[in-house]
From TrEMBL, chain A:
<dbReference type="GO" id="GO:0005096">
    <property type="term" value="F:GTPase activator activity"/>
</dbReference>
<feature type="compositionally biased region" description="Low complexity">
    <location>
        <begin position="673"/>
        <end position="685"/>
    </location>
</feature>
<dbReference type="GO" id="GO:0006914">
    <property type="term" value="P:autophagy"/>
</dbReference>
<feature type="domain" description="UDENN FLCN/SMCR8-type">
    <location>
        <begin position="48"/>
        <end position="910"/>
    </location>
</feature>
<feature type="region of interest" description="Disordered">
    <location>
        <begin position="654"/>
        <end position="703"/>
    </location>
</feature>
<feature type="region of interest" description="Disordered">
    <location>
        <begin position="261"/>
        <end position="294"/>
    </location>
</feature>
<protein>
    <submittedName>
        <fullName>Guanine nucleotide exchange protein SMCR8 isoform X2</fullName>
    </submittedName>
</protein>
<keyword id="KW-0072">Autophagy</keyword>
<dbReference type="GO" id="GO:0005085">
    <property type="term" value="F:guanyl-nucleotide exchange factor activity"/>
</dbReference>
Automatic annotation (TrEMBL), chain B:
<dbReference type="InterPro" id="IPR001680">
    <property type="entry name" value="WD40_rpt"/>
</dbReference>
<dbReference type="GO" id="GO:0006914">
    <property type="term" value="P:autophagy"/>
</dbReference>
<dbReference type="Pfam" id="PF25178">
    <property type="entry name" value="Beta-prop_WDR41"/>
</dbReference>
<dbReference type="InterPro" id="IPR015943">
    <property type="entry name" value="WD40/YVTN_repeat-like_dom_sf"/>
</dbReference>
<dbReference type="GO" id="GO:0010506">
    <property type="term" value="P:regulation of autophagy"/>
</dbReference>
<comment type="function">
    <text>Non-catalytic component of the C9orf72-SMCR8 complex, a complex that has guanine nucleotide exchange factor (GEF) activity and regulates autophagy. The C9orf72-SMCR8 complex promotes the exchange of GDP to GTP, converting inactive GDP-bound RAB8A and RAB39B into their active GTP-bound form, thereby promoting autophagosome maturation. As part of the C9orf72-SMCR8 complex, stimulates RAB8A and RAB11A GTPase activity in vitro, however WDR42 is shown not be an essential complex component for this function.</text>
</comment>
<dbReference type="InterPro" id="IPR019775">
    <property type="entry name" value="WD40_repeat_CS"/>
</dbReference>
<dbReference type="InterPro" id="IPR036322">
    <property type="entry name" value="WD40_repeat_dom_sf"/>
</dbReference>
<dbReference type="InterPro" id="IPR020472">
    <property type="entry name" value="WD40_PAC1"/>
</dbReference>
């Protein structure tokens, strides 16, 4: 984890933080008063003041043709979440801005009703009265019994934090699209089924009518038709027509997948969504979809009914529920997806952004990340990763295949000018990358619309909006720059749309006062920022680029800077900075130009105007020089694989959550947050495909506890340093004790220092009561061993003494440690017993950030060609090894035993890198013949 | 050392404290083996290791299976399971120059009274012979005649196609314990206390077929002969259970030299201790012999002796090289000797020309810390004095390898890959030079980078 540990919101101590370390209280005059409202559970980041609900939730509403807009359900389905928030009112609001304008009917020039497969619309709107802001995702489902065959629905993510909605727009949109896609797929299936039945009914009716007519014909021997007969004939004719209509509808709905396919080159994202179903179970949906025809045709069980001639569409008939509309299976799947979305976006925006950046950076570290990171997400698709990173090294600078891929959150929104008034802006967020993206014009997504198509969209949107309700104004957009200049005076918010968009409508700015609906458009793409504006915002990218350009023949090495609060971390970064220069000269001298761009996209979080801008990572690559690519392609945070890739708990911002949400909600409600696993089990049905393993959250808690216990260990034992050194250098540490709980606790705590082997978790054995074996040392690097006071255990201890050269032994009962001497400077920074860090999670992050630096050093060391191989054929191997030593010492600044740590990590890196493809076996047990010493308290 | 672990009182009888065993601390700067790989495939004692080629070896043991390993990666390549009982002998069958298929073949004999020929490249069982009256205890290949011999209660001669060519009459119930080839188409078989020399008669125009004739019985050993070694074309060496080492002339089958006093090479020294430690017959049984150009290295009980063939005397010895019987000794090219023992350890010795008698500093390290330095001093004393009297070289302990939890039966040395040890704890351990391995991995890493096109070297 590279994120800054203490940048996250100040929160009160979590309830499961056990026994926080109590330092003597500061004298009154030095203490900073706590946030005054902390007792009420508010936190300085809380923007909930005006909101009537306690935390973000998802609302599904419908514009019912019978009763108008109505809320259907919320996620989480708990009245305490939305409290006194008026769902009905809000539903009215959000449903009245449906831009979809999807109408079914008889378009001019067509004989039959035509289904319109419209794309969903995605808007952001705010309601300052309610203090609510929402991402609203409109979609249309088909219902044979509904007016015009359509049922408009919308899903809304409602939050009190407007910035959150704005900045997470891309992610929200992607996630909701998945949910929507799932619903629509189910709906198409159900609709087709319905049509089938209807056709059978009609067919049957026709037969009946036909027979009746025949009978009448026979009965009637007069030369003319009775009015009855004429009526029957008319009826028959209308049935015939109806059959044709319905057949056409059926054909349309069935042809949908093909249509999609055809349109896919225009709209790659949509097609990707279909191919990327939200969950595993949904993967089957595609298959089913492709096999649709079979499904629909063979339904022999259905017995057709006679359809009355005047089947009236009356209001007393019950409309289908959402579940009926789209197959229970798909419905539950959608709910699971929405629950996942809700879970994913829980917590403070700041936390979300940090964790997204964190994940994005972590992905770039895929070579070293197995060492100390929790590798749940890495190792997802190692082969693909390998593919994309290794075999295509020339891809930097090129865009990723899909817009979802390039996302360190790079939303730039000028919220500064926003003054909660009434300005509405048209939104059309369809990211139509099309060929542009594949051609690779830009790194970031560019919403380059097909002009003609866009024109249509705009027109359509206009239509929809005009009719949507009087309280809404939807306005076209101005050129971004001009809007910006105007926005001050007009106190409006606008975000520029793509300049490429051909605007069909005249720009019109209107100020609508008195009403509380705002439609905010978002424009997440960096490419859309006008140039003058782009130049002015402070960003690390310019610097970085200049580095890259200037750093000819240098190792580019920019570490994620730890928070300045940690003095040690500063030291670390400064040492890295020195490394940069050292490396450059060293390498420049010895091996010619070498360029190792460690990908560390700079990011600035400038909060004075609420702009969070993280520029995309750009690589400047020198042709000459050794280059190891940390692919940019992988730098996508949660978005596209958040569903199948990241288990939701990865995204669980629980520490913020506990402060922010927990404060306002009651405890039992809060249980949803604290023990998500159980809540999933209880709230969702058995068919939750993306359900979260219960281990997920416990791992968050586990980190905290481990951090806390590690802190305690460091404070309690003066010989913590050599013990930690043992772990870092790959010498097995045996924690010996009688009490299992104590041993386990310490082992868990110390496990944060254990480098992993691969993607199979850390080599830690928490509790072992059998005698140790040589294979145990190969397998595990940290072992909790039971000390039994029986003769049988003598064997265990005998084994321990026999293998003493492979182990360090920490005796918990006697408080002794037997292990090699440690004199380095690394561990003291990692484990300072005088540290001011008090919280376990903070310490954990502190450790992680230092370990990340360490990994970086190990990486540089491992991948520097000239350090390990002779620079030219005739060179003596001794020269390389002397270079190695001087590099480690002078460039990486490692002294004494620290060298061994880096060498060990380098060894693991090599093994990992070379064996990645053919399944990791356990590495050989490496050891040194060094004397051990006994440490006592 | 255990005292602090267990807390006094219940300390097991540490062998180190009782014997004058030379120990080395944890600091072993000359020990190159800093990496180990545990290979697991066997379910019982692993007794035999056979080198197949530069990078492969086969292991066999009491579980009746033969496993072929890659000595570099530790990868298990093949597993042969055809024997129903423990394997008693294993030997490689060198392929003929004329033979087209160069597949590496091995022969294994088992207590189930079968001998199977395996193909180590395909993993195929080539042939199986199961007409033995008794367990075959040793195998020998006479490459010159292109035949192989199996020794059980009788001695049989086979050709490559596994046809029985001829056999001797029943020799003894204990069977042949060792079998070596000597010149003039003769073989020496150790049967109990006797060495029997047989001559093989190959078919000529006159005779119909193969024949094997007993030529001579050598009765000089007092006790069972445990080891037999063909030193060079002129002599062979045999060692017995009571510590007799006899050097024989291969042509005349006469005794060239005899060393019988391993158990008491210098009775005037520390008489009591020597008697106490070495009088037990088990302590002087010669279990393994090896040689280089000048010396025969003899595993005598717990000790290790270097017998010089020219001088016809012991030039260096380490009377308690291990805590218990030494089972296997190998001389490495670099004047290093490696021994393994029933105590589960492998020790690396260096044969040094005797220096002036300076008291070397006792290795500092772990044992000093625990007050065991005393033991070291005691241990080094007799050795030093011994050297003064009888030897001109010394065996210095430069490292030990501790990994097996039970008796180390045998080991193999690969120049390029390190040491392979097999043990009664069912494991095989591959000991490697960590530094070299690290370099190799580095090389591999850059190769892979290059393959992937990620390596950009400056022009």
């Amino acid at each position: 984890m590279i994120s800054a540990p203490d940048v996250v919101a100040f929160t009160k101590e979590d309830e499961y933080e056990e026994e926080p370390y109590n330092e003597p209280a500061l004298p009154e005059e030095y203490s900073v008063p706590l946030f005054p409202f902390a007792s009420q559970g508010a936190n300085p980041w809380s923007k909930l003041s005006g909101a009537k609900f306690s935390r973000d939730f998802i609302l599904i509403s419908e514009f019912s043709e019978q009763v108008g807009p109505q809320p259907l359900l919320t996620i989480p389905n708990d009245t305490k979440v939305f409290g006194t928030f008026d769902l009905n009112y809000f539903s009215l609001r959000i449903m009245s801005v449906d831009y979809q304008a999807s109408f079914v009917g008889h378009p001019p020039g067509s004989a039959y009703p035509k289904l319109n497969f419209v794309e969903d619309s995605k808007v952001v709107l705010g309601d300052s009265k309610e203090g609510a802001f929402a991402y609203v995702h409109h979609l249309t489902l088909y219902d044979l019994e509904a007016r015009g065959f359509v049922r408009p629905f919308c899903m809304a993510y409602i939050s009190a934090d407007q910035h959150k909605i704005m900045q997470q727009f891309q992610e929200l949109s992607a996630e909701f699209s998945k949910a929507s896609e799932c619903l629509k797929t189910g709906n198409r299936k159900a609709f087709a089924g319905e049509l089938e039945k209807k056709l059978k009914d009609l067919d049957y009716t026709r037969t009946v009518l036909h027979t009746e007519t025949e009978i009448q014909k026979k009965a009637n021997d007069k030369g003319f038709y009775s009015s009855q007969a004429i009526e029957k004939a008319n009826e028959l004719a209308s049935v015939e027509k109806s059959i044709i209509e319905h057949q056409d509808l059926l054909r349309q709905i069935r042809s949908y997948p093909h249509r999609k396919l055809r349109g896919s080159n225009l709209c790659p994202r949509e097609s990707e969504h279909t191919q990327d179903p939200p969950s595993q179970a949904a993967a089957t949906s595609d298959l089913e979809e492709s096999a649709d025809t079979d499904h629909y045709t063979c339904r022999p069980s259905y017995t057709p009914k006679l359809i009355k001639a005047k089947s009236t569409k009356c209001f007393d008939k019950k409309l289908k529920t959402l579940e009926e509309l789209c197959d229970t299976e798909y419905f539950t799947q959608t709910l699971a997806q929405l629950r996942h979305v809700e879970h994913m976006f829980r917590g403070d925006l700041c936390y979300l952004l940090t964790s997204q950046i964190d994940r994005a950076l972590l992905k770039q570290q895929h070579i070293t990340s197995f060492l100390f990171e929790d590798l749940v997400e890495v190792g997802d698709r190692p082969a693909e990763k390998q593919e994309s990173t290794v075999s295509k090294p020339h891809h930097y600078g090129l865009p990723s295949e899909s817009p979802e891929d390039c996302l360190v959150p790079q939303v730039l929104i000028s919220v500064g000018s926003y003054k909660s008034s009434v300005e509405s802006v048209l939104i059309k967020m369809e990211q139509d990358l099309g060929d542009e993206a594949s051609r690779g014009a830009a790194v970031t997504e560019s919403s380059s619309f097909d002009p003609q198509e866009n024109l249509d969209y705009l027109e359509m949107d206009m239509k929809g909006s005009v009719s949507s309700g009087e309280s809404i104004e939807v306005l076209g957009t101005e050129k971004p720059t001009s809007v910006l200049s105007k926005s001050e005076s007009q106190s409006s918010l606008t975000v520029p749309l793509s300049p490429q968009v051909v605007r069909s409508k005249a720009v019109s700015h209107r100020t609508i006062s008195g009403d509380s609906i705002e439609v905010l458009s978002t424009c997440p793409s960096e490419a859309l920022i006008p140039d003058d504006f782009k130049a002015s915002y402070p960003s690390a990218i310019n610097e970085e680029e200049s580095y890259a350009e200037g750093g000819q023949g240098a190792i580019l090495f920019q570490a994620g800077i730890s928070p300045p609060e940690l003095g040690e971390a500063e030291e670390g970064s400064s040492s890295l900075a020195s490394l940069q220069t050292d490396a450059s000269c060293c390498i420049g001298r010895e091996a010619g130009a070498l360029l190792v761009p460690l990908s560390t996209p700079g990011h600035t979080v400038s909060d004075e105007d609420g702009v969070v801008s993280v520029p995309p990572q750009r690589y400047r690559q020198k042709d000459q020089g050794f280059h190891v690519d940390f692919s940019v392609e992988n730098a996508s945070p949660s978005r596209d694989n958040s569903c199948e890739g990241f288990p939701a708990y990865e995204l669980d911002p629980s520490h913020l959550l506990t402060s922010r949400d927990g404060s306002k909600t009651s405890l039992d409600d809060h249980s949803d947050a604290t023990s998500y696993g159980s809540s999933v089990a209880s709230t969702s049905s058995d068919r939750t495909p993306s359900s979260v393993p219960p281990a997920g959250l416990s791992s968050e808690r586990h980190k905290k506890r481990a951090g806390q216990n590690a802190l305690k260990f460091i404070r309690q034992y003066p010989f913590a340093h050599p013990a930690i050194y043992s772990l870092l250098s790959g010498r097995t540490l045996v924690v010996l004790g009688e009490e299992e709980a104590m041993v386990r606790k310490l082992v868990t705590a110390l496990s944060i220092f254990v480098p992993g082997y691969g993607r199979h978790g850390k080599p830690v054995k928490h509790w072992l009561s059998s005698p140790l074996h040589i294979t145990d040392f190969q397998k595990w690097k940290l072992i909790g061993l039971q000390r039994v006071a029986s003769p049988a255990s003598a064997g265990a201890l005998h084994a321990l003494s026999r293998y003493s050269r492979y182990t360090s032994i920490l005796d918990l009962d006697r408080k002794t440690l037997r292990c090699p001497l440690y004199r380095g400077t690394l561990v003291p920074r990692l484990a300072d017993h005088r540290t001011h860090i008090r919280r376990g999670s903070t310490y954990f992050l502190h450790v992680q950030s230092l370990l990340a630096q360490l990994c970086a050093k190990a990486f540089v060391y491992t991948f520097c060609h000239h350090l390990h191989l002779p620079a030219h054929g005739s060179e003596a191997p001794e020269l390389a090894s002397s270079r190695q030593a001087s590099f480690l010492q002078l460039t990486l600044g490692l002294v004494h035993e620290d060298v061994k740590v880096v060498r060990y990590l380098a060894e693991l890196l090599r093994l990992h890198y070379t064996q990645e493809l053919r399944g990791t076996s356990q590495p050989a047990l490496r050891f040194d013949y060094v004397p051990s010493f006994l440490y006592k308290i | 050392m255990l005292r602090w672990l267990i807390g006094g009182g219940r300390e097991p009888q540490g062998l180190a404290e009782k014997s004058p065993l030379q120990t080395i601390g944890e600091e072993q700067t000359q020990n190159p083996y800093t990496e180990l790989l545990v290979l697991k495939a066997h379910h019982d004692i692993v007794r035999y290791l056979v080198r197949l080629d530069d990078y492969r070896f086969a292991s066999a043991g009491d579980d009746g299976i033969v496993v072929v390993w890659n000595a570099q990666t530790g990868e298990k390549l093949l597993e042969f399971s055809g024997h129903t009982q423990k394997i008693t002998a294993i030997i490689t069958l060198p392929c003929l120059e004329t033979c087209e298929e160069k597949n590496q073949l091995i022969l294994t004999a088992s207590a189930d009274r079968t001998v199977i020929e395996w193909d180590c490249d395909t993993g195929r069982q080539v042939q199986k012979v199961s007409c033995f009256q008794s367990t075959v205890k040793c195998l020998a290949v006479l490459q010159r005649l292109d035949v192989w011999l199996s020794g059980g209660n009788d001695l049989c001669v086979w050709n490559r196609k596994l046809d029985l060519l001829c056999k001797t009459s029943h020799l003894s119930d204990t069977g042949i314990s060792a079998l070596i080839e000597i010149p003039k188409n003769c073989v020496v078989a150790a049967v109990g206390k006797e060495l029997i020399i047989f001559r093989l008669v190959a078919p000529t125009e006159g005779s119909l077929g193969w024949d094997i004739l007993e030529v001579k019985r050598l009765l000089d050993h007092q006790d069972n002969i445990l080891s037999l070694l063909n030193v060079d074309d002129v002599s062979f060496v045999s060692g017995s259970h009571v510590g007799e080492l006899i050097v024989w002339d291969t042509l005349g089958w006469t005794v060239q030299a005899c060393e019988r006093n391993f158990w008491d090479p210098s009775p005037q020294l520390d008489a009591q201790r020597e008697i106490k430690l070495c009088q037990k017959p088990n302590d002087v049984s010669i279990r393994h012999l090896t040689w280089d150009e000048e010396n025969v290295f003899v595993a005598v009980g717990r000790g290790l002796y270097v017998y010089n063939l020219q001088m016809k005397r012991v030039i260096a010895c380490q009377k308690t090289a291990h805590d218990s019987s030494v089972l296997h000794v190998v001389k490495l090219p670099n004047r290093q000797v490696i021994s393994c023992s029933e105590d589960g350890s492998v020790r690396i010795w260096e044969l040094r020309e005797k220096q002036q008698l300076s008291v070397e500093p006792v290795p500092t390290g772990f044992f000093n810390m625990w007050g065991f330095g005393r033991v070291n001093k005691q241990a080094s004393h007799p050795v030093k004095k011994q050297q003064e009297n009888a030897t001109s070289c010394s065996l210095e302990l430069i490292g030990d390898l501790i990994g097996h939890s039970s008796s180390v039966e045998m080991f193999l040395y690969f120049e390029d890959h390190g040491l392979v040890t097999c043990s009664a704890d069912h494991l095989i351990i591959l000991w490697k030079n960590g530094e070299r391995e690290s370099g190799l991995r580095s090389l591999k890493l850059f190769q892979k980078l290059e393959e992937n096109g990620d390596l950009y070297l400056s022009v």
